[in-house]
Amino acid sequence: MRRAFTLLALLAFLSPDLLAHGGIIRGGGGGTTRSPGGNPGRPTRPRTPGEKKDRPGETPPPTESGPPTTPPIDPGGSTTPPGDSGAPTTPGAQPAPPRPGTPVTPPASAPTTGPIPPSTPPVAPPSAAAGRTGGVPGAARRATAPSDRWETWWSQTRELYLSRHASESSTRVQGLASGRGTVPAESSLLSTEVRKSLLPLLALALRDSSVEVADSAAIALGRSLPRADSAPLLPHLLKNLAHPESSPQEAAVLGLGLIGGPDAVAALREIALDSAEGRRRCGATGPIDDLLRGLATLSLGLAGTQDALSPIVTLATSATVSRELVATAIVAMGLQREAAPAAIVTLSRLLDERGLERSVRAQVPIAMARLPMAASRGMLPKLLAHLSDKQTPDEVARSIALSLGQLASLEEEETARVLMETARRHSDASTREFALIALGRIGERAEQATVPAPRLEPQRQLVHQFLLGQLVNPERKSQQPWAALALGLFGRGEAELPPARDRTAHSGRKLLETFESTRDPSLQGALALALGLLRYREAGAPLLAHLTDDRHPELRGQLAVALGLVGARDAAEPMRALLTDPALPPLARIDVARGLALLDDTQFERQLIDLLATAPDSYSASAYVRALGLVGGSESAPALRAMVEDRSLPELQRGFAVVAIGLLAEKTPLPWNVPYLVDANFTLPLRPLDAILDLL
Fold first, then answer.
1. Helices 540-549 and 521-534 meet at what angle, rounded to 10?
2. Contact in structure between 219 and 256 (CB atoms under 8 Å)
3. Confidence of residue 301 (pLDDT cuts 50, 70, 90)
4. Rounded to whole angstroms, what are the CA distances from 123 to 56, 324, 419, 625?
5. What is the C-alpha to C-alpha distance for residues 301 and 648, in angstroms, rounded to an integer?
6. pLDDT of 123
7. Three-state DSSP class for 45?
8. Under DSSP, is residue 24 helix (H, G, I), strand (E, B) or coil?
9. Confidence grade of residue 182 (pLDDT, cut at 50, 70, 90)
């Protein structure tokens, strides 16, 4: 699972050399990366002609946006990010990515296509056990790469606002993403009857001779199968743990984590710990691959039960495993809802361990913020102290800024003050940008305030004026789109507060004025989405005019989503026409479909089904399948079922159809990986997490 199934994997169809290799979760980079010393018991899957084996530390080739996604190390300590000049950013040409289900690195300039993780890091050498380096605090500060842009953050956060449950309050949806809300027993995307009718099809696909179809089915079953109904299929998932190819193994591990339960947790625990029993289950005669162990650890996090915490803590505090596994275990600890009090004790100790390698320690604040508030809010003073400490490494400071956005409220005036100061003066560009987003996040959760609204009004005005200033008169042009998005989030939370209506309207006018005055398509996209988050209805007509006239595909997709968010129902007809426009790339049409879904349009689903029936190539067909999985309904199920059952179709198309059925039949309101996705520190490369973030 080198990288996972994002929409950019659809572009795999453009490169025949990438079509032949097996496994819905295997990436376009080539052979399986092994942990130090290799995995003597697991053969590497065969590589097809033209495939290149990944080398530790090798930067993947540019994706759609052009530049790689790993920020360069700046030996001179420069902290001026590219883009501070305010120059417009234009996406590069589209290359050929991998096949369905394959973990790929999506481009920074393609926020409309899914999460955009950093590139794969080098595997930690044995000498880097536990990530404890004893390094100099604050050393190796680095600049932000051009690819560390707002689009990356949006692609990892947007499911909170674009799902078909977006009509719920943003606070409630955020609670679901962080594990703090109450998740309904089943999703409302499909009726119970239709969803149950699809489960036998997925069970059959799990045993399909095509690896693409089989490992797509493992995750589709995990995301759609209630635990109470899983007993007949658990043996098949457990059997796939010993599959001769890595991709079905990894899919089975994730499927088990999504289903949960004692039997699944027992198997995942042994794999994560690389025990003799774990090796037996995986058919390995030597150490289990670190990537598979990492995925098992994240799956234990998804299970979220008391018995899952012990192996996670063992790995997070181990002095003998790789830094990759330590960091992965810390991430998994953030989902330990049942054992949150014990988890927060371990995380607090790790945050204070200055000898912990920076990229490992930086995962701690993110994990803290994802735990239930009752366990995590007590960490606020410690987090603020570390953010204010100039010796705190940039990687850690970025994560703290993000975590404060989830933990703090406007009642904590000191938190807002520190975040504003950080956004103004911190030497690291990403930390400044994340501080802006955190201020927007805090304002977004207005419903959670325990102090009467009038008492908070002066603080609201202070933060609003600060964000408005960063938009209208930014100290650094690169922060302008982040300030726009923060204003959108802040105003979204104030929507129901009568004293704030004039302030929200003022934000909308300033965002719209800036949108009309700039010609930078990246900034325009951020401003359009900010107007959408703000639900500024007066923006409908100007956004629609740009949607009609603009020829920038990515921006048109963002405009369509923004029109859906503002509720511009008069845009439905032009958007339906755009959905069938052959001049618009299929990937951009997915955003158009999502915008129409936000408008509660009743015609676009049939349009997508018709487009699928007449698709000229696999690339287009797979894009429409993805769209149906995201925003379709009961009408889409028969078309997708027919694709899975039609063995004359390419295996890739059938695999995509299986994934789409899993999306339709999702048993929870938000996609299964959202808890690991929202407010992740995307500047930290971590292979197991990257793979999960890339999966549909």
1. 150
2. no
3. very high
4. 6, 7, 34, 35
5. 39
6. 37
7. coil
8. coil
9. very low
